[in-house]
Amino acid sequence: MKVALAQWDMVVGDVSGNATRIIEAIERADGAGAQVVVLPELAVTGYPPEDLLLRRSFVEANVEATSKIAAQTGDLVAVFGFVHPSGGVLHNAAAICQNGEIKAVYSKHLLPNYGVFDEDRYFTAGTDHHLFVATEATFGVCVCEDAWFPEGPIAVQGDAGAQVIFNINASPFHKGKVVEREQMLAERARRAGTSIVYLNTVGGQDELVFDGASLVLNAQGEVFSRLPQFEEAFEVVDVPLGPRSVNRSRQLLAGSVNRTAVGLRRAEAPGTSVVAQPLEGAAEVYAALVLALRDYARKNGFTKMVLGLSGGVDSALVATIGADALGAGNVLGLLMPSSFSSSHSVTDSEELARNLGIQTHTIAIAGAYESYLEMLKGAFGEVEMGIAEENLQARIRGNLNMAVSNRYGHLVVATGNKSEMAVGYATLYGDMAGGFALLKDVFKTEVYELCRYRNTVSQVIPENVLTKPPSAELRPGQKDQDSLPPYDVLDQVLDLYVEEDLGRKEIIASGYEEAVVDQVLRLVDRAEYKRRQAPPGPKVTTKAFGRDRRLPITNRWREA
Amino acid sequence: MKVALAQWDMVVGDVSGNATRIIEAIERADGAGAQVVVLPELAVTGYPPEDLLLRRSFVEANVEATSKIAAQTGDLVAVFGFVHPSGGVLHNAAAICQNGEIKAVYSKHLLPNYGVFDEDRYFTAGTDHHLFVATEATFGVCVCEDAWFPEGPIAVQGDAGAQVIFNINASPFHKGKVVEREQMLAERARRAGTSIVYLNTVGGQDELVFDGASLVLNAQGEVFSRLPQFEEAFEVVDVPLGPRSVNRSRQLLAGSVNRTAVGLRRAEAPGTSVVAQPLEGAAEVYAALVLALRDYARKNGFTKMVLGLSGGVDSALVATIGADALGAGNVLGLLMPSSFSSSHSVTDSEELARNLGIQTHTIAIAGAYESYLEMLKGAFGEVEMGIAEENLQARIRGNLNMAVSNRYGHLVVATGNKSEMAVGYATLYGDMAGGFALLKDVFKTEVYELCRYRNTVSQVIPENVLTKPPSAELRPGQKDQDSLPPYDVLDQVLDLYVEEDLGRKEIIASGYEEAVVDQVLRLVDRAEYKRRQAPPGPKVTTKAFGRDRRLPITNRWREA
To answer: What pTM value is reported for the model?
Structure first.
């Protein structure tokens, strides 16, 4: 079967724009002689539309757009996701359209409601299946999570006679997910005896990034085609079909399976079998961050970004990703030395900026800092401000970034990493200030890996940035490692506590010092109020701070 | 039946502290000669524990605490909420304990997953019922949402023979909910032919405030006892029993109803029938805000608060609530005039502070403001900064509040109201800065109502604060009404758009000018990125910004 895969980046809320693009995909597939075109889950609304779904005007616009798209179809079958209101509830559904009409609607059976997902908040699960019976082939349709359960819709539809199943997705990226997905889909294909067309969306959406990597697997579970990661793709693939066979005994258990006769047009020209190689390790995460930043900027109307360049590894990486995502000419770095700043904080930043070709301004903050101390002295007398002094410097810098944003429209990109966000080693309204926190889900040790990876592409980040000891430079001689465990240990403990949700005893039993574990857990727990006010940033691990990890601020639970 | 109602304020995460308090309630009920003591939903963990539930160490501690509590029971029956892990899933459950053991566990049937609730994220619904059969009476137990469906657990248990049902709750407050709840419970009682003991928790928890107002209704749906709102209460009530009757025909439909024989101790002394009057209008919301602030401070370890006093109505109300919640001696007001500030901004604030008896410091911000302009001029030349200049003033004030917090440990309370939060008429990292945003869910028109209400208790807010036109005073002669619709119109449109989720056409059809509606909707949509970084604040309406309203930042949907 000749199938067009439209791995496209749909924009949340852009119902008319998305509809235009879906029609464009249909026309392009039609022109290429495909028999079926497949687009992502909730292609009409973008994913996830969140509480827009509670507004009737939005849901109605999505229904009208879906009808309009269906009206544009000819003998090519189009499969795409939309929100289907029915009987007073909403379904996360696939429309199967042909010859100017919606021939059938499949409503997602399995609604994810864990991690970043809240689908039970909006949708009611479907219970019916649809098989589409043509002379050439019988096919089925399902949506995203439906594929993840061994005896779920793919098995049912396979048993009922499907030779190929179109599984449409908005499957958020995390490291290693491509492998996980391909193993899972291979099992499903073999179990069901069907080939599978796995069509994923691509693009950045607030805290999520979708990696594409759409797949075609044959009924033996072998990868027949794979689309690239982190970019839009449109390919017409000759999808191999599974055998024509029906498992009658199983069918009795399967619930309602509706059968709809369809006529498939003749395939006009041979399709292809593209197999893009998935990215690995740091290259994959780097590409995810580039797309996340580019899409956040583009979809929110920003062309330029500003960031504070401290001479440290975090801001160096953010500037570099910024240049790759938006173009070097669209990145502005502010060098904002204080009296505690080292000379290399400026010289390293300048070298980085030259290498990248980005613009910088240097603004010494001593004057503003002194005026704050004067103001406070006037009110409170001569007192040692301590941590307040450190935070003031960070906040002056945050204010300057924001002033540039307010005046010139730049997106402020915050540079803090996941390790800092975890332990609260960042200043609220200071270095945490910004519209997007690009490294929010990247541990400090991974920041180094990403820099070293990027330097293998072209040497842009000065070696001194990668070798000097990390320091916030907010007081004389300050070094991160004076107050935190070594980053390699810290990041491992954080991984166990944050991503694995292990308790204190289990972490200690994994081989970490009691004192270190207690320190880290205490710091993480105490910083929840800061994280709650952090900008969004892209999820690249199995558990990111934000919608993926929802802890109370008011919380007396302590592991120790 | 003589029942002790322990309307207590449990702390999220404080498993050992909550267990101690539950045991205290049991001892007190025992001493008062009660036959049954009832405590809130998830009393052991506090509500809502959110993603703490994903950590095994936490769930296990809750189970251990529950066993420990059960071990303390004698012939008094104790009913309280805990998390019940069973078969690899979690239940939001009630433990029914007596004579040193957990006699039965009831798992909540109906799990709310809308508005502020995410119970499907954590819990699996129960399917069984338990009736407890004593010589004197047959009783049932259910949890919160179970009461809200006409043919739900209360009807089933009533049909099966329950004469009284204990419904344990953590039911968040919003304006008017007491009336809504009492009407609903009266219907349930009449339908089921049982009396109902509705036991609610009380207290503030991040964005939620629980109002208590626990109730006893007889089988005719009449209020027999009502506990006070917004404070802890412990009362021993002689609960009237419904008739002994079983609806056999209905029972067949009801699913599994387990029967457990229990012996009730003899009631030693007469109980009471307290009927506290519920608060109304502004008095009710005022009390909710006092408790929300007091509990946020107390449970997070703050005794003192700081706020910026602008001479405006919002900061006047926050200071007043602060004085009522924490004591006047624990409230510090910072007066931070700029060159655009009116003279009354200082004099009105000083009068307010004298009336309340709170401490103030006055810090002129002109010096810091000039130094920012100098820094920016050095980098960008002589340019008109426009909105950037306005925001700088707000951010200097935010920084000063935070410096006081960092140095002296005060909680910074942000003063912005719901109208401002809605339309983005507030500065991120400026007047939005703080640990708690007390008026986040209070419209500007309601701010005036609350002030006028509070002045009827004692005249503390200067009349000039209530009569002068609202202004941010960030540029010469600025007035809110120059750039926003009149607040009474604005608040009505916001109510329709935010709380009612109506679309543009429906709002215009309700009688508002097209231009005004378009302006308001555009402003609300554009400010989503600011709200995402706002501090938590207490929900007092049917839809608050925060976990109650979850919209994407990246969102191209526009109603116009």
So the answer is: 0.96
